[in-house]
Specification:
Length: 269
């Protein structure tokens, strides 16, 4: 497929880092973007040591800042000369009952999850239109929350539903420029952050119950989310645009009755 210039936001840890690793392992150059500077530098060192042939750069800052978004574009131009792939993965997931959500919390969630996705995409899409890379595409990380409502996360669900619709609209508007736009919606993913919450019997029991809602009866591995993103970015997916691919073990397909639940691999025994 050739060496590509890839931007991944939220790349300091978790899903974003896993996605960045997949692209670096496949021979692409990657710009890691995140607000957590120390973790971002650690991720860069790890990827650079593991994949010495890849060019790994970082940009640390607040994605809700117009000035920082402009810095990302400048970095792409100066280091790579173009942007082939943008993966919007940065996001936050606070859990608060609807009646207690403050305006500040709503603004912070929608501001990063949806508004920053919009403006980063707009800026990088303009660069793509200008430089005309072959097989340019944008992949947004949505969520099963873009399709399935959950209590306690009204702001998160709303923001991810917005990401899904934004993906579809941009697929229509950017198609004339040869830019494909898709989304990947993870279900439960086995990240370090998730595992860190499983520190007592109650949290482990609640986790097992959540896992049981998916027909495959397990969490996703980071590599499985990264593989879906990579596929959509590849020429093998050249006729796919405007889609929200849910990688959720069947969770969004419907509720599993426990008497029929498969005995699949479990993340926590």
């Amino acid at each position: 497929m050739g060496r590509r210039a890839v931007i991944v936001t939220g790349a300091a840890s978790g899903i974003g880092k896993g996605i960045a690793e997949k692209f670096a392992a496949s021979g692409d150059d990657v710009l890691l973007v995140d607000i957590k500077e120390q973790q971002l530098n650690d991720a860069k060192e790890q990827l650079a040591a593991t994949f010495p042939e890849a060019v790994i750069k970082t940009a640390a800052g607040d994605l809700t800042s117009k000035e920082f978004v402009e810095c990302i574009v400048s970095e792409c131009k100066s280091v790579f000369g173009r942007a082939d792939v943008l993966v919007n993965c940065a996001g936050i997931f606070p859990s608060t009952p609807f009646l207690q959500i403050s305006r500040e919390e709503w603004d912070s969630v929608v501001g990063l999850n949806l508004s920053a996705t919009f403006f980063v995409t707009q800026a990088i899409a303009r660069l793509m239109v200008e430089t005309k890379p072959d097989n340019a595409n944008i992949i947004n990380i949505s969520s099963t929350a873009s399709e399935v409502a959950r209590p306690g996360v009204a702001h998160y669900c709303s923001s991810k539903a917005g990401v899904k619709m934004l993906t579809q609209v941009l697929a229509l508007e950017l198609a004339p420029y040869g830019i494909r736009v898709n989304a990947v919606g993870p279900g439960l993913v086995e990240t370090e952050a998730l595992l860190a919450t499983l520190n007592n019997e109650k949290s482990i029991a609640e986790h097992k119950e959540k896992v049981s809602f998916a027909p495959l009866n397990r969490t996703a591995e980071l590599s499985e989310i990264a593989a879906a993103v990579y596929f959509l970015s590849s020429k093998e997916a050249s006729y796919i645009t405007g889609q929200n691919l849910l990688v959720d073990g069947g969770y969004s397909a419907g509720r599993v009755f426990k008497s029929f639940a498969p005995q699949g691999k479990k993340a926590i025994e």
